[in-house]
Amino acid sequence: xxxxxxxxxxxxxxxxxxxxxxxxxxxxxxxxxxxxxxxxxxxxxxxxxxxxxxxxxxxxxxxxxxxxxxxxxxxxxxxxxxxxxxxxxxxxxxxxxxxxxxxxxxxxxxxxxxxxxxxxxxxxxxxxxxxxxxxxxxxxxxxxxxxxxxxxxxxxxxxxxxxxxxxxxxxxxxxxxxxxxxxxxxxxxxxxxxxxxxxxxxxxxxxxxxxxxxxxxxxxxxxxxxxxxxxxxxxxxxxxxxxxxxxxxxxxxxxxxxxxxxxxxxxxxxxxxxxxxxxxxxxxxxxxxxxxxxxxxxxxxxxxxxx
Length: 307
Description:
Blueprint (H helix, E strand, L loop, with lengths): L1 H20 L3 H4 L10 E9 L2 E8 L3 E2 L1 E11 L4 E2 L6 E7 L5 E2 L8 E3 L4 E8 L8 E10 L2 E9 L1 E2 L8 E5 L5 E8 L7 E11 L17 E3 L4 E7 L14 E5 L5 E6 L5 E9 L5 E3 L18 E6 L1
Parallel strand pairs: 3-12
Antiparallel strand pairs: 1-2, 2-4, 4-5, 4-9, 6-7, 6-10, 8-9, 10-11, 13-14, 14-15, 15-16, 15-19, 17-18, 17-20, 18-19, 20-21, 20-22
């Protein structure tokens, strides 16, 4: 009898451990996806005779990809600076005082039609008790350079369709993939948009902080992101879908492909990341075996989404 009790307890422990490790898909399905289309002010920085306003979707910085709109106003003349050299540098400080950055557009470009400077930032962490983000912004007016900085808050991304991942490639370079669209997918073929970026390793010793050469990132050019979408829930058997298209770079620098969602629910986007010579930098193929009752296997490089 004692021997039987030991076996039963052992089985219980194994089942409990497996259950704890598995994703709670039922709970995830209760999350609602909100699609934002309006840019609102996130923060405003007042310095001397200038006011710098920064806008993002929903008036919030989120972990992941954020398009930003920035305006510089001379408060004395009430004029919008249109020909300024504006630079944008996000810096993260951790609990140990270590400083790092994230993919971003350093030299912002002025949009004449909309009358603001436009760029992007891919925040790799949300703000918390041990993570602090600051923006360092430089601009010019009348041949003078002005420097301002401000602490900001980065919120957790609740929309899994806008998830991101960071990884080291087989070439030892550090890469980042951030989903940009769709915010709210449909049961159909959806245009899948992603930004792909690389950290530029410094070649010189750090100078006066913030030394831009230590926090440089660039858009990855002419690579390919092979796509294999799967439904990992045990009840879905890790099935895929037809008519998907791998992601390739477009004129705007972002990568575009097509993902065909055949039903709502949890999906895993499995990727294989190839360079311009079609050499694999990260990612593995996923088995095509139908596995009902078993949680689906994921590749080496993936992003989970939900709609």
